[in-house]
Design a protein that fits this description.
8-stranded parallel sheet, globular, alpha/beta, 400 residues
């Protein structure tokens, strides 16, 4: 971690408001006061914010940092389409690209940090080919960065659960070794045995006290059926507030009455939602989800991997996609989108508090933009990024 740790950040504009000075100590925000209200002490190490827009550090609520070939020579997209085709292609090609590896995970985490992301919830493949090696690689990458990016790990059975005997045992081992959550994948379309997959996942989560974060790609009625199964098991298991649906494309496709009924149950059980805002997906009822207190987080998904050549680790790009998919026009709604990518996503990485307020981590991003809307639409470089109070990015370039 760099040794530059300012004790005072001056003349910044949180969320585009009036300029303030922010007092930093011990990796946290200690105080926020009007700019120039108190003269700095001689011993203060000052970072001049120059009137820049200040945002909390970005929280990537859905990533796959073990899969990326970022920083390597370009890899042409190949294999067959569809989830099954992508799984087969990845399994055939990943070893030749050195996936997973600590170096690969570190490269993509560094790029995320350069764009202002200081915390990541990453799904990491757990299967019969790599075992738990991917988890070890991501943890090593996190240690190498010495806390600049905090990684919350989901043990993810990308190749299926029930159809691959032995995967439940791997997930159980991962849960016993302290992952944040265990994942699941399309219990109807992949395993074709939703009862067995969900029973197995919930049994592990109950035994170890970890969460569940399940990829659901099915649309329409099949997707809604999977939601109903998850709601039932969440209620019976007592895992309130510990279950997340990733993608969940069906939600935006359902008739309003059925959608509203499901949202009420999600809210009751604390079931959260993460989206990567694919441009052709149906809009989520995100305003209603906010009204009901359903946590929603934004993520990058995979970044330059064997599933897709797209992605660069910049959550502002994802925020722009989300805004476009949901028809955002008004400044206040753009600000709400950025909250999804920052402070309101704190729970996805286990933080009790985040944001630009006293007591929050000193994870701060400075951007040359007028306001959140301007930042999302233009996507300017991050002028400065502080992680835990340490200056890690200057003029868009990493210091570590």
């Amino acid at each position: 971690m760099p040794t530059t740790t300012p004790s005072l950040l001056t003349a910044v504009r949180p969320w585009g408001g009036e300029p303030v000075d922010i007092v930093l100590a011990d990796g946290s925000i200690q105080e926020i006061r009007p700019a120039g209200a108190v003269a700095p002490a001689p011993e203060d190490d000052i970072l001049d914010g120059r009137g820049l827009l200040a945002l909390p550090g970005f929280v990537n609520a859905h990533a796959h940092v073990d899969k990326s070939w970022w920083g390597r020579p370009w890899v042409p997209y190949g294999g067959e389409g569809g989830t099954q085709g992508r799984i087969a292609h990845e399994r055939a090609e990943r070893e030749g690209l050195g996936i997973p590896s600590a170096d690969g995970a570190e490269r993509v985490l560094r790029e995320m940090l350069r764009h202002g992301t200081t915390a990541v919830r990453s799904h990491v493949d757990v299967d019969l080919g790599v075992g738990l090696d991917g988890i070890a690689a991501v943890r090593e990458a996190e240690r190498t960065l010495d806390g600049a990016v905090e990684v919350s790990i989901v043990a993810f059975p990308q190749d299926g659960v029930i159809r691959r005997p032995g995967v439940l045992d791997l997930l159980d081992r991962a849960a016993g070794e302290g992952v944040t959550a265990i994942g699941g994948l399309d219990p109807c379309a992949i395993d074709r045995d939703p009862v067995a997959q969900l029973d197995g996942l919930f049994a592990i989560a109950e035994r170890h006290g970890c969460g569940i974060d399940i990829h659901l790609h099915s649309g329409g009625d099949l997707g809604a059926f999977e939601y109903e199964l998850i709601i039932d098991r969440t209620r019976r298991s007592g895992l309130t507030g510990m279950v997340n649906v990733a993608h969940g494309f069906a939600l935006g496709q359902l008739p309003s009455a059925r959608q509203e009924a499901l949202l009420g149950e999600f809210a009751e059980l604390g079931i959260s939602w993460t989206t990567v805002a694919p441009v052709r997906s149906a809009p989520l009822p995100w305003v209603r989800m906010r009204e009901l207190g359903i946590p929603v987080g934004l993520g990058t998904d995979g970044i330059r991997d064997l599933w897709s050549p797209y992605g660069d680790g910049d959550l502002l790009r994802v925020a722009l996609d989300f805004a476009r998919v949901h028809g955002v026009r008004y400044d206040e709604d753009f600000a709400e989108v950025l909250h999804l990518a920052t402070d309101r996503a704190a729970g996805f990485v286990g933080w009790p508090v985040a944001g630009l307020e006293a007591g929050a981590p000193a994870d701060i991003v400075l951007i040359d933009a007028q306001n959140p809307a301007d930042a999302i639409v233009r996507g300017p470089a991050r002028e400065n990024v502080l992680s835990g109070g340490a200056l890690v990015v200057v003029h868009g370039e990493l210091l570590l």
